[in-house]
Every structure is written in C-alpha cells, then in structure tokens.
C-alpha cells in the first residue's frame, strides 16, 4: 500500500517498521545498531535514510518518542513518575525529569497539573450521553496505510487509498480501524502518525511488501459515535471521564482507535459513524 513519492518510497515499508518497533520497545535497548537491524540496513545507510525521510536522527526520534510517551502517561494516568520513567526507557525518575524539563520547558509534576485530561474532560456538560460498554477484544492482524503529518482532511486520502486496496483484494465487509499514534497537543503536527487499517482473514495471504501489524487483544471501553469528525474529540473526552466505571480501570498505555464494522461506512469530511475504543487496564492496589 502506502508509498512515499521520490527516492525513499521503496524504503518506506522498512522505515515504518522501525517506528513500530520503537513504540513497542521504549523500555529496551534502542541503539542505532538495533534499529538498523530492524530495517535490514547498515548503520551508515540507515542513519542517512532515516534522517532524510523523517527529518531527524534516529537518536533524536527515540528520545522524542520516549518523552512524548511519558507526557501521554502524565496526561492520561495517575502513574508514579518513577514507573513512567522506567517504562519509557529512562534509568531513573531524576533522569526522566531532567530530560522532560529540557524538552518541554517544565517539570513533569507541573506539566501534569496543567495538562491533566481528566480535568478537561470534567468540564464537558452532561447534556449528551453516550452508552459505554466494557468488552474484551481479541488480537487482530491488519494491513495498514500510514499518514504522517497534520491530522484532518489529509487523512481522508488514506481512507480512500485503503478502500481501493480492500476492493482490489476482495476484502469488502472486513472491519476497518483508524488509529492515532501521536497526540498533536505535544507531538509536532508534521510528525503525527495516523494508521488506516483493515482486518485480515486468517487464511488471507497479502501481496508482497504489504504493511502489516497486530492490534493487541485487551479490555476496551467502547462508545458509538455518530456525527461530524471534528466533534469526535468531545466524545473521546466524555469517554475518558465517564467511561471508566467505579475506578476499576485506568487508561492503558497504547493507542485507542476508531472501529468501523462491516455495516458502517468509512468516514468522510462531513460524517462519521464508528465505535471509539479506549484501551483499559485493571487498577492494581499497592
């Protein structure tokens, strides 16, 4: 599917696999050597290609992703800073705090107070109520096409590309997913990633070099949203505030997504009809 125009199009598949690997292994060794191995390039070739493609070095990208993942945890959870630091690949809470202050210009504790999503969500009026259900979703293998850049209307081109690929490969009627991988409130808009995915049957053999990934199983709070795409953020905030029953759950540190079943159309500029799926974890007591 997705190919970049110009000289790097043939390598986009492998470079996107590196971005996926980084997200899945933030707490582990993400050295230049390890990332180059994931892309099947030499260190020198990988370093040059990655910088030319994404506008920053692999080292700068990993550091930014670790700090953004930490910011997301600060915003969407009450987890201790030491736990967040460890999960995001920092050796200590002090090291994370220094790096966070250097990047965001403010200490993590202060940033959390100013950017707590629950405070923002609590300001939403209760005039509109959405039913919320808590369900377990199984693991899904998907093919995807990725948009990198500002969210909004450009994303619709990715949906059109996916719908064409679905028709070509005889996959009409399969569930589709829209997945934001970055938060534009602290990720530079030009670096934001959005994946448009289609679920694959177990016996489907995709064409060579089709971008594939797995949506992990887990517990999700699900809300049916129908309305303009520009208003869906309000529904997400409502789900965050009212969709976590009795304090039993917290938001899991992985992307949520929109789910479009076989009976639902793909979104367009004026209308959206989908299930918003918020990943959850059971709260643990210390």
UniProtKB/TrEMBL annotation:
UniProt KW keywords: DNA-binding, Transcription, Transcription regulation
Highest taxon above the source species: Bacteria
Every HTH araC/xylS-type domain range: 16-114
SMART domains linked to this entry: AraC_E_bind, HTH_ARAC
One function term, GO molecular function aspect: sequence-specific DNA binding
Name listed for the protein in its UniProt record: AraC family transcriptional regulator
Originating organism: Chitinivorax tropicus
